[in-house]
Structures are given as C-alpha cells and as structure tokens.
Amino acid sequence: MSNIPAELKYATSHEWVRDDGNGIYTVGITEHAQGLLGDMxxxxxxxxxxxxxxxxxxxxAESVKAASDIYAPIxxxxxxxxxxLEDSPELVNSDAFNDGYxxxxxxxxxxxxxxxxxxxxxxxxxxxx
Amino acid sequence: MAEQTILFDKHIEAxxxxxxxxxxDMPINYGSQIEEHHAVRQDAxxxxxxxxxxxxxxGAQAKPFLQKLLANDVAKLTVSGKAMYGGMxxxxxxxxxxxxxxxxSDEYYRLVVxxxxxxKDMAWIxxxxxxxxxxxxxxxxxxxxxxxxxxxxEKAAKVFSAAQNAALEGIKPFFSVDVxxxxxxxxxxxxxxxYEIIVPxxxxxxxxxxLLDVDVRPCGLGARDTLRLEAGxxxxxxxxxxxxxxxxANMAWTIAWEPSEREFIGRSALVEQKASGTLHxxxxxxxxxxxxxxHGQKVVFTDSEGVEQEGVITSGTFxxxxxxxxxxxxxxxxxxxxxxxxxxxxxxxVKVVKSGFVRNGKKTF
Lengths: 129, 365
Hints:
The complex is a heterodimer of chains A (129) and B (365).
Chain A: E1 9-10, E2 15-21, E3 24-29, H1 31-37, E4 40-44, E5 51-52, E6 57-63, E7 67-71, E8 76-81, H2 84-87, H3 91-94, E9 103-107, H4 119-128
Chain B: E1 3-4, H1 8-13, E2 17-21, E3 24-29, H2 33-42, E4 45-48, E5 53-58, H3 62-69, E6 83-89, E7 95-105, E8 108-113, H4 118-129, E9 135-138, E10 142-148, H5 152-157, H6 162-168, E11 176-179, E12 182-185, E13 194-200, H7 201-213, E14 217-218, H8 221-230, H9 267-276, E15 281-287, E16 298-302, E17 308-319, E18 324-331, E19 338-343, E20 346-353, E21 358-359, E22 362-363
Parallel strand pairs in B: 1-3, 4-14
Antiparallel strand pairs in B: 2-3, 4-10, 5-8, 5-9, 6-7, 7-8, 10-13, 11-12, 12-13, 15-18, 15-20, 16-17, 16-19, 17-18, 19-20, 21-22
C-alpha cells in the first residue's frame, strides 16, 4: 500500500501540497504517482517568479515510461524550485514527499486549498483507479 | 485472466511489479528499471522470457519448408546448433514476425517466435506447412531464461553441469548446445554477451534460484526494452509490423537474395518495393538535450533539394547508459546528419546516426 501522509492535501491528478506557513505551499507528486511513472529521468520545472492558475500545466515529470504533466494545485507564484532534481531526478522516486518535492508556490488565495482532497479522499480516488 | 509463466511466484518473491504484456502477467521491474539496466551493462542480469514461443519443425521437408517460409535462407546453416535471425514475411512483403531459427539437422529446426504474435504466427506457419512433409509442434512445456551481461557467462558457468560447461567451451555468438536437459544459446536482446536458456518448466524455478544464488539480478521488461533499444534491436509491433517492409526496418541484412531461384514468401513484393524508390530507412536519433524521444513522434527535415520530409519515431527511450534519450526512427532515405522532432508541441534538434547506440557496455556512435 502506498504511503499517504495525513497532514498533506492532494489533487486527483496526484500532486501533494504541504502548508509551510505564511501562504507558502510545497508541491510534489505522490508516492503512488511516482510508482505509476517508474524511474524518473528528467523533471522540467517552472521558473521562480512564474505565476499559474490552479489547474495549469506547471511542470513535466519525465520517466523511463512516459512524460507526465504536473498541474498547479493552487493559483499563485512560484517562489522556489527543487534544484536538486536537475542532477538527481530519482529523488522523486526515493523520497516523493520530502527531498523529491518539485517547487514551492505562494498562494494568491488560501481558500483554494479547500478544493483539494485530504488523505482519506485521495486514498479513495486511487483505489478507484 | 492473464497467463502466468512458471516463474510467477519467483517474481512476486523478488518484489516484481507485474503488468499485462500481450496477455501475459510479466514483471516490468523489481523496483528500479534503471538499476536493472545497469546490472546488465556492468555485471549480469536475467529475464524471464518464458512467454516466448518455441516451435519445432521436423520432417523430411523441414529445410525446403523454411526456405519458403523465411526471408533468410536456412541453407546458410550447416553446423548443428547454429542460429540465424530473420523475418517471416507476408505476400506483400510486410513482417509477420521476427524470429530466431536454430539448426539441429536438415530435418529438424527450432524456431523461437514472439509471444505477442503467437496466435497469428502459428496460424500462418501451419497454413504454409500444409503442402510440405513437416510436423509443426509448439512446445509450451518449455520455459526460457535470458542471462545477459559482461559477467553473465562466468556466473552461469557456476550453475551449469560439467558437461554443459564443456559443450560451451569456446562457443561462438549465435550458436546453441543441447546438453543435460538445457538448450543453451549464445543469443540475446541486450547487446551484451550471455545466454538464452530453454529449460523444461519443471526445472525452471530451480534454475532461476540457482542464478539468483550466484548474484544474477532479476530484470524486468522495462530494462529489457531500454537495453534492446540502446543495442538498436527492433521490437516487433513498434519498429516493424505487417505493414512495414524489412528493408525499411534495418533488416535488409536478413534477406537472402541468393540463390535467386529461392521463392520465399514476400520475395516478389520486396523486389517491387526496392524498385519503387520510395522505401524509407531506419535510423537512430540522439537527443542530448533534456527530454525523452517517444514512439509516434514526428521527425522532420529538409532534404538537399529543399523539400520538407517527414518520418516517425518507432521507438524511443531514455538511455540509462548514455544519460540522454535515443530513438529508432523510420524516415525518407534523403535524411542528413540532423533532423527535428516534434516533442510536446515544440521542435527539438536531434542527431541522426546508424541505429544502435551501445554494444558490450560501450557507446558506438
């Protein structure tokens, strides 16, 4: 069974969101998602300062198997990207919820978080897959 | 319900992630496809290829039958155990399947064909065999393990009997021996040295375990695909199929034109294709920038006459050995040293080389 931390929020498209405080949120893809994609070979990240609406294509996770779009789970501005992924994309596989995070985004409107799933809700969506 | 090979429980024991592969429940990886890939390039890995189909052709007319059935000529095989690769074509010169033929004697040959094409292969072979004095026998009771890598032979030797090792002494590539219940061939699908071992089902799990015990790493279909692609080897259904000429799929070397009176199936169609001047060719593509070339992506270039030309990637992947993407493509023959590939709505520049990127652990371009 996949690990789904209870303190995170989730999108049905398999991104996770962690509240870092001060309106900043860390975003990555779930352990379940990395398992589906297989070994990661490149991660194309946005630039710091770019702004996105919730649901926009924001990054691309390219594994041995497929290129997969990552969607912005909330509207906001990218304030940090995970530079480590440039040389070590496999961090997404080995530590999806921590060192394998993708970027941090400053939310325009924190109320959008309510549109995301909690751990239980996400668990239910992947069981339907 | 997907079929399982006799090694199913061994795969689960080893932590395999199983996927459906043309009706077979097969391991895609045992954790990391890339690590498995490296194991084969640097040490020794093994693959369960029991889903492949072994077919024995026996009878007084075995040789003339196969001379008709196959585009390569079994008459080239004169030493018992020698193997030959080639295509089984339809009347229009498309590839029904690619396969290996082992020569035992003029009245006994063994074919190993793809699993995805098993049903149509058997129907075709049986249909063609009707007018020959031959017996066509599928052998589902046989399993197969491929052991590949620079240390594969040395490790396998620890598992083989003294008689098997004696028979394998000094064996050349593309040969086989049949000793003490194992049919051991120096063939493979990775670009490394090693063996493909045909083993009765009842002994297969034991052989797998013995190979595990001498540190041969189990590898899944994922690594098998990146290895064969690096080696520039075709995958049936992607790089060629019934609508693709072997002449456009880097298989011209497997067509035996001589003797000219040998009327193999598809011959006249191939002659017409050659004369048409419109045949595409297979090339290798290299993308050193970020991104991964994938099956189905469009390849475009401007030829020396200034005309826009278009081809297609038939298979592409990230090459773990090289650290960037490589692909096999089918393109107009006028292609030069560079082309553009449409990837995710953008065009990226790729280098064009001969297909085949890695052999025996080394870059070949």
